[in-house]
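Example complex used in Figure S2.
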Amino acid sequence: MPTILVIDDDTAIRKLLGVALNAAGFTTILTDKGINGLAQAATHNPSLILLDLGLPDIEGRHLLQKLREWSNTPVIVLSAREAEHEKIMALEAGADDYLTKPFSVGELIARIKSCLRRVDMLTPSSNPIIISDNLHLNALSHTVTLSNIPLKLTPKEFELLRLLMQNSGKVLTHTWLLKEIWGIVYQSETHYLRVFINQLRQKIEVDPARPKRIITETGIGYRFMG
Amino acid sequence: MLIQSLLFVGMISLFSYFFADRLMSVNIGMLHLLPIIYAAFRFGRRITLWTSFASVLSFDFFFISPTLTFTVHDFRYIISFTIMIGIGQFIAWLSAQAALAKELEMSKRTQEALLGLLSHELRTPLSAIKGASSGLLDEHLLLDEASVHQLYETIDESASRMGQLINNLLDSARLQHGHFTPSFNPSDLGEILGSALARIEQTAKAQLHIATDLPLIMADAVLIELLLVNLLDNAFKYSIHVSVRIEHHPLGVLIEVCNDGCIPLPEETSRALLPFERLSNASGHSGVGLGLYICHLISDLHHGTLKVTSNNGFFCVQLILLERLP
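Predicted assembly (552 residues):
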């Protein structure tokens, strides 16, 4: 049974998360302080950490940086709605996903499961073929098929789709994607990304105006829904 | 503003110059007071001060002998000049006071309206939540499964309603007080619409007409999404027939969201963008009238144009966003 470490200073939220996660079949460790949280993470080695970004004793970003020095445990951060820069900072400091408060329990459980699934799949030398429904991507032969019909993708489009599919369910920030595909110099050229995402959507989405595969996280980045 | 006042001074001097032989220097002095008063009424104390200097110097230069010099033959003119400048400052101060009083009155009225709405709109869902949760906790109540479910549903719905209201209040406060810097980036409106739709569309779907090859516009994508969510939310609140059009516009891109419910009276369209204003036939739907106001604030931040129209039984909100910011 996976163990989840919850770091949140609000008693009501902690109680709620404890009940909800136990009911969903997880074991929980609850703590209200960031420093305790780090210690708990070291002693109990949880499968996943839920981290509130508004902790009084330590800034979420610093906690993440400290944690990432020795641990790869996936982290989902909880944050206020309008704090886009906070979310981006957390993602760049090593968080795997974020949830905006107030969230529904169903959404939270779904995100946790998708995060744990992704970690399971992340074994080195993993399968070069990534499958999402009727969309197949072969990283070795550089081919993509949709319902067994080959798609014509430019090298950059292919690279973008590969990154998105390999990190299925995870939010990839604009900066990270740009750096991976175009290199460090182009980190702020988000319009490059817009154009390529748009082209990809035309090719793989049923209704490109209402994308179901490449989801926009406005102001932050993109998420592939497998 | 300063240029406008200085032009006025010039005009007065020119006029006085042509009719100098029929006017006494007192008349000309009085005439030169006019631009000062005009500036004092309209533009505040600093511009009034500059206008006063210009007017006094022009008066002195052209009309006080020796003319075409800044010297005065009679020291008493200096007193006149001082009085002219003083009057300007005094009137500017008075009109600033008047504007302040008017603003206070406005904010008092907004506050009252806000308090009334808040107490109603926040208390109603809170009462529902409290009622339902206390009912669920009461050991003496024998509730069947269906009623328990209903009580849970009430809590969930009321919490969403309160959440929406609180979000709107915080958004408008955040946008209104200007201590907020948008981050402008080249943005794809079609893409932003897509994620706004994902948040709003549940049972009914909007009809989309999106032009191809739309230019990227300089915008804060998060704010524009908030704007579109508000427009769509409004539209779906009153009707299931909603259409969205995005097309090219000489200045950038035009977005139009229309529905066929809740048609405003013609005299109401101009008030629709003000805070806490609700259309006369919106009663029965919850809300405090902040949605379109938030859209208006966001559009202003982008130097855009937001217009509310109603024709042929359709209620439309039109937004023009610039391709490049000025």
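Chain B has a mean pLDDT of 85. The interface with chain A takes residues 159, 163, 167, 170-171, 174, 183, 185-188, 190-195, 197-198, 201, 208, 210, 216, 220-222, 225 of chain B (CB under 8 Å).
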